[in-house]
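Data availability (excerpt). The following record was deposited with the supplementary files.
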Amino acid sequence: MRLWSVHPKYLDAKGIVALWREALLAKHVLEGKTKGYKNHPQLNRFKDTTNAVDFINLYLSGVWLEANVRGYNFDRNKIDWNFIIGSLTVTSGQMEYERSHLLGKLQLRDVEKFKIVEKIISLESHPLFEIVEGEIENWEIV
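Predicted structure:
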């Protein structure tokens, strides 16, 4: 499971579809609707909030909005749009790590997207996140 901190606009088609599916799985886990993945480290930043379900719905909304811009038909009814607006932080070190990780994936799957993203030194974060100085997040498996 990878819940990217980078903005979904940088993901290729396979990446954004995988992100949608994995974020929906994360939503089910946080809602207590599945037994698997309960202790997945990618969920910690949501679990550490006062309302993890609101934040995962807010996260999903950002993915849905990007997919919609691209003309994809992701089911908006999978999101509870009554979430409370807020933000979480992500460290600059995590963003750098994810940029590198994403470039590796893009180089194999979508060379055109790779060429575009490779030129961007500092990627924008997913709209849910505000970037703060720091090392790679402690929940990241390196």
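Summary of structural features: Residues 71 and 109 are 20 Å apart (CA to CA).
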